[in-house]
Design goal:
Largest sheet: 8 strands, mixed
Bound molecules: 1,6-di-O-phosphono-alpha-D-fructofuranose
Number of domains: 2
CATH class of the largest domain: Alpha Beta
Distance between the termini: 38 Å
Number of strands: 17
CATH architecture of the largest domain: 2-Layer Sandwich
Number of helices: 9
Helix content: 25-40%
CATH superfamily of the largest domain: Fructose-1,6-Bisphosphatase, subunit A, domain 1
Radius of gyration: 20 Å
Shape: globular
Strand content: 15-25%
């Protein structure tokens, strides 16, 4: 808990954003339309949190009986969360279009609604394989600007991650939390389930540069490239190896949860490319998973690469393109990236 909060009492998300809007501390003020966008997304995440919490009682578990553009079977909650985000955002006048992991093509704002300057991308329910076993899941979102005069089609979304104006995620776990950056550091809000408000609980998130904890799906070891195998073997060698310290391992299989742990206590998260599908550069999607998470991690003092290149510098060519991801404590991300180079 940073001392700012201790002296200011309960700060709601709305107050936090309005104070950013009036920013007098030399930081770029937050445009009101962007404040509205973030509040609408945060409200939709609250709705999703309540649906998630119903579980079997709400008939939201199991498969939807449909597939998505990724070739994955959709869970009911994938579809429910996607529809909640579309419905919440399509009429407000703050967006030009939306894109989602669950939709093959871009969703332009319907003609009968006003259009705005922002583009919203999201993974409506990240960690779907955890839904039916009651393990944390989340929602990831990213906000870009639609350049003046540019039609809000797929090409408008193909911007490097450093063009993001905001990014965040909600994590539906023992606590329901919203993590947000507008390029001025990282703030964490916790859902007060009695007043149904997002309340600021940390506004100076910092990732330690060093760590003794790593996150990777070890079952893929035989499929990794040599630099990854070398690095992981050094971590496993602990005190007896070149890194001269022991490491712990965690793998939640929901990126939001592994990233949240890293924001909270440090660590390195890795999803490298592997030989199972050599034509794919990785499993995670660049535009609505890697880019928003990399923006947040860098704003908290961490680093994020695809093994060689800073993720926020990667030039996208397709809406659903995938990327390898190494992110978290800066010194470890630099070490494993150095092995690739
Ligand atoms: P699902 O949404 O299909 O469960 O995938 C989640 C995810 O994209 C990411 O959130 C996890 O870090 C990663 O995949 C887990 O992948 P593995 O299931 O291969 O470990």
């Amino acid at each position: 808990m940073s001392n700012t909060l201790a002296t200011r009492g309960r700060i709601s998300l709305t107050r936090y954003l309005i104070e950013r809007e009036r920013s007098a501390d030399g930081q770029a003020p937050l445009p009101p339309a962007l404040r509205l966008l973030i509040e609408v997304v945060a409200r939709a995440c609250k709705q999703i949190a309540y649906e998630v919490g119903k579980g079997a009682l709400g008939g939201v578990l199991g498969e939807a009986g449909t597939g998505n553009v990724q070739g994955e079977a959709q869970k009911k909650l994938d579809v429910i969360a996607n529809e909640m985000l579309l419905e919440a955002n399509e009429w407000g006048g703050h967006l030009a279009a939306m894109a989602s992991e669950e939709m093959a093509t871009v969703f332009p704002i319907p003609e009968h609604y006003p259009r705005g300057e922002y583009l919203l991308l999201f993974d409506p329910l990240d960690g779907s394989s955890n839904i039916d076993v009651n393990v944390s899941i989340g929602t990831i979102f990213s906000v870009l600007r639609c350049a003046d005069g540019v039609a809000p089609g797929e090409d408008a979304f193909l911007q490097t991650g450093d063009q993001q104006v905001a990014a965040g995620y909600a994590v539906y776990g023992p606590q329901t939390q919203l993590v947000l950056t507008v390029g001025q550091g990282v703030a964490v809000f916790t859902l007060d389930r009695e007043t149904h408000s997002w309340i600021l609980t940390d506004d100076h998130v910092q990732i330690p540069a060093d760590t003794q904890e790593f996150a990777i799906n070890m079952s893929n070891r035989r499929h990794w490239d040599a630099p990854v195998t070398r690095y992981i073997d050094e971590l496993l060698a602990g005190k007896t190896g070149p890194l001269a310290k022991d490491f712990n391992m965690r793998w939640v299989a929901a990126m939001v949860s592994d990233v949240h742990r890293i924001l909270t206590r440090g660590g390195i998260f890795m999803y490298p490319r592997d030989a199972r599908e050599p034509e794919k550069p990785g499993k995670l999607r660049l535009l609505y998973e890697a880019n928003p998470m990399s923006f947040i991690v860098e704003q908290a003092g961490g680093a994020a690469t695809d093994g060689r290149t800073r993720i926020l510098d990667l030039e996208p060519t397709k809406l659903h393109q995938r990327v390898a991801v190494f992110l978290g404590s800066k010194n470890e991300v630099q070490r494993v990236s150095g092995y690739h180079r």
